[in-house]
């Protein structure tokens, strides 16, 4: 029982590596700065082994538990979503309480479910209708990853050397693939489950501010 409580107490610490991997490599990619090994370096194989090993083991456990590839994909996607939203706010609220600062809760969605919301749930669609601060870091990461992946792709098509930036492009592309429901909720959807314009605008401004904030230190590395 003690191990179980410890697991759940330390579970939110996943937000630290997830946040770093969701922002740092992509911001470096936008500035053409490589932080991962190149193809020709032996340590490149280590990164590939760790990624394939971790995700392969997770997928195997789903198959053993009579799961499907779709269930595994949704599970790892929700793990990323929790790491960039709920886990971070849990630690923020915890530290504020330790400092004696009053906190407020974050309500994601209404507890009242109408027929349209039930239909969207049965269709497997994400519900973003509530305006919540918890969505802001998630959408900010989705925007930065999309822009960095597209910029890297443009540089590749122009014939620029991208050997040292391959892993960063792969990571950005993988996150973009996971964030497809977010992009649809931002631009394509017209139902009540779409992301509110205020949340999208706030996340876009935050993404621009974050880019400008790191431009000076990262720009000096080039």
Verbal overview:
It is a single chain. This protein has 10 helices and no strands. The protein has helices at residues 2-10, 15-30, 43-64, 69-84, 86-98, 115-122, 136-157, 166-178, 180-188, 197-219. Helices cover 68% and strands 0% of the residues. α2 packs parallel to α7 (136-157), α2 (15-30) packs across α8 and α7 crosses α10. It is globular, with a radius of gyration of 19 Å. The chain is mainly α and 222 residues long. The protein has one domain (21-213).
> Main β-sheet, in a few words?
none
- The count of β-strands is 0
Class per helix and strand makeup = mainly alpha
Q: Segments where pLDDT lies below 50 for 5+ residues?
A: none
Distance between the termini: 51 Å
Radius of gyration: 19 Å
Q: How would you describe this structure in keywords?
A:
mainly alpha; 0% strand
Mind sketching the topology for me?
Layout: H1 2-10, H2 15-30, H3 43-64, H4 69-84, H5 86-98, H6 115-122, H7 136-157, H8 166-178, H9 180-188, H10 197-219
Helix pairs in contact: 2-4, 2-7, 2-8, 7-8, 7-10
GO cellular component, one term: endomembrane system
Pfam families: Cellulose_synt
Organism: Carya illinoinensis (Pecan)
Would you summarize the structure shown here?
By secondary structure, the protein is mostly helical.
């Amino acid at each position: 029982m003690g191990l179980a409580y410890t697991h759940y107490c330390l579970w939110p610490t996943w937000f630290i590596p997830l946040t770093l991997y969701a922002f740092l490599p992509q911001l470096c990619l936008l500035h053409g700065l490589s932080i991962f090994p190149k193809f020709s370096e032996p340590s490149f194989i280590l990164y590939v082994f760790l990624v394939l090993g971790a995700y392969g083991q997770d997928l195997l456990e789903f198959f053993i538990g009579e799961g499907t590839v779709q269930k595994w994909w949704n599970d790892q996607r929700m793990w990323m979503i929790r790491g960039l939203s709920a886990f971070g706010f849990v630690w923020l609220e915890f530290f504020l309480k330790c400092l004696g600062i009053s906190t407020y809760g974050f309500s994601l969605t209404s507890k009242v479910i109408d027929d349209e919301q039930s239909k969207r749930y049965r269709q497997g669609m994400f519900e973003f209708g509530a305006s919540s601060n918890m969505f802001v870091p998630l959408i900010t990461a989705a925007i930065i990853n999309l822009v960095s992946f597209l910029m890297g792709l443009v540089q590749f098509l122009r014939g620029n050397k991208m050997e040292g930036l391959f892993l960063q492009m792969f990571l950005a592309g993988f996150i973009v693939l996971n964030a497809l429901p977010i992009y649809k909720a931002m631009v394509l959807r017209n139902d009540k489950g779409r992301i509110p314009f205020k949340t999208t605008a706030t996340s876009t401004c935050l993404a621009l501010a974050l880019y400008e904030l790191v431009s000076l230190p990262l720009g000096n590395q080039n």
